[in-house]
């Protein structure tokens, strides 16, 4: 637990960041003052009322009235991690008569946001070796990114995942610098915590371990105990969790839908008989089925026009994990306007609207300078990658970024709202730029510092203003 102890050199930064994070959390809490009146029996009201981009307030619902509301194959342990907060919230509810879930969850978000800053600072200064002042500037830029900022306060899993990933990178970075190996025990702990929150991020733990331990990663003892066994147990747990919590509800829903279909068919048979005067039961049944099929098709056509379907691309397959893929959404437009656009700078139009409700998949900025900022950040990222191309730690970070890009741009998972995934990969930008700071000669160091500081100030001001005004 020493890793969570604040070092003397971090204390001033820690106080400033803590105050700002508290203020930012209170901004979001103040947007929904009536949430204190939502009681456990109405816990799903959070999902109906909460609207910030495509984020889901399932954590509010789970902490209010514990249930397995997350997708068990994507967030296998997250609901269980919320059990203690649920107990605390229930006690506070009994004590006050109010649902203080926003404050209980806010403490979790505050903790993860705070240590995201601390671990990023340590990565920049202790692992990469930039100066303290440069680390502050790069960290400020990182926290100025739109979906780093938004992810800090929304009741979703993203800031938790972000903190755990940065913790992993910090541990692996120190291990690489010290010429040591990542132990089996540390690998298991990091995998269980990180994959338990977001299963796909478990791959990043193993990528980090691979670049840290190099060929030793493939030693039978490490590979079996540190990689294969934890992954197999996690998947087994996912399957058990699905059978225990999800399957009974799915069967109940399917049974209810089947009963509704039978009732609807009987209704259309009756309508057909009234319209035609038919008395033959076989002809009535056939006519009713034809009317019912026509009705189903009309409903389908109407539903396909809704944003939920219209903004969802064509999947590779309609069953299993492949149903979440997308092969039709334009990748170039997505990269320019969303991946390096909305993720980093909020759009003024359709501000923090949901793509699955009313926001178009592609939104353009009103001003040219937003695109200039975007191009400058991309240029700095690419230069940083080139400057740090010989550093094993940067390749570790790049491998995790590449995994996300295969997932989102390659397979198209979540591509229509790719910006909300930002907390899973935005760390690559300040880390890559840090290598420019480290290797730049004296002549270019000060101009680089000024440019990065101006970017940080602009992003904090632009995104902070738009988020608060929202």
From TrEMBL:
Keyword Transmembrane in the entry? The reply is yes
Q: Does the keyword Membrane apply?
A: yes
InterPro entries, per the entry: DUF6080 (IPR045726)
Print the keywords alphabetically: Membrane, Transmembrane, Transmembrane helix
Any Pfam family: DUF6080
Superkingdom, according to UniProt?
Bacteria
Record field: transmembrane: 12-30, 100-124, 136-153, 159-176, 188-211, 217-238, 367-387, 393-411, 418-437, 449-468
Protein name from the UniProt record? GtrA family protein
The protein's organism comes out as Xylanibacter ruminicola (Prevotella ruminicola)
């Amino acid at each position: 637990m020493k890793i969570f102890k604040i070092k003397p050199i971090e204390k001033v930064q820690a106080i400033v960041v803590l105050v700002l994070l508290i203020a930012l959390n209170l901004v979001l809490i103040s947007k929904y003052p009536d949430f204190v009146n939502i009681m456990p029996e109405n816990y799903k009201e959070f999902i109906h009322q909460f609207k910030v981009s495509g984020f889901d307030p399932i954590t509010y619902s789970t902490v209010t009235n514990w249930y397995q509301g997350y997708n068990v194959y994507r967030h296998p342990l997250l609901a269980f991690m919320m059990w203690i907060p649920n107990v605390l919230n229930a006690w506070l509810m009994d004590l006050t008569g109010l649902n203080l879930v926003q404050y209980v969850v806010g403490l979790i978000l505050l903790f993860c946001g705070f240590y995201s800053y601390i671990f990023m600072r340590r990565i920049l200064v202790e692992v990469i070796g930039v100066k303290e002042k440069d680390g502050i500037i790069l960290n400020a830029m990182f926290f100025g990114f739109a979906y780093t900022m938004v992810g800090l306060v929304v009741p979703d899993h993203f800031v938790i995942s972000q903190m755990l990933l940065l913790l992993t990178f910090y541990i692996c970075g120190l291990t690489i610098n010290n010429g040591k190996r990542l132990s089996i025990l540390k690998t298991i702990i990091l995998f269980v915590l990180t994959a338990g929150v977001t299963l796909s991020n478990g791959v990043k733990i193993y990528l980090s371990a691979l670049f840290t331990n190099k060929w030793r990663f493939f030693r039978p003892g490490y590979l079996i105990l540190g990689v294969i066994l934890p992954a197999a147990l996690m998947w087994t747990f996912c399957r058990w969790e699905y059978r225990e919590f999800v399957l009974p509800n799915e069967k109940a829903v399917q049974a209810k839908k089947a009963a509704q279909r039978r009732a609807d068919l009987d209704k259309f048979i009756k309508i057909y008989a009234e319209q035609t005067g038919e008395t033959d039961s076989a002809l009535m049944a056939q006519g009713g089925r034809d009317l019912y099929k026509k009705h189903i098709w009309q409903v389908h056509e109407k539903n396909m026009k809704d944003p939920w379907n219209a903004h969802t691309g064509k999947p590779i397959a309609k069953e299993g994990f492949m149903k979440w893929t997308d092969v039709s959404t334009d990748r170039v437009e997505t990269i320019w306007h969303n991946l390096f656009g909305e993720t980093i700078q909020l759009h003024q139009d359709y501000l923090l609207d949901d793509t699955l409700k009313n926001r178009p998949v592609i939104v353009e900025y009103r001003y040219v300078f937003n695109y200039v900022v975007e191009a400058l950040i991309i240029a700095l990222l690419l230069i940083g990658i080139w400057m740090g191309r010989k550093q094993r730690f940067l390749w570790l970070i790049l491998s995790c970024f590449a995994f996300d890009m295969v997932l989102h741009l390659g397979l198209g998972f979540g591509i229509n709202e790719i910006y909300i995934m930002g907390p899973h990969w935005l760390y690559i930008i300040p880390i890559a730029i840090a290598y420019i700071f480290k290797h730049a000669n004296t002549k270019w160091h000060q101009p680089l510092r000024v440019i990065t500081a101006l970017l940080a100030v602009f992003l904090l001001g632009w995104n902070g203003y738009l988020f608060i005004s929202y």
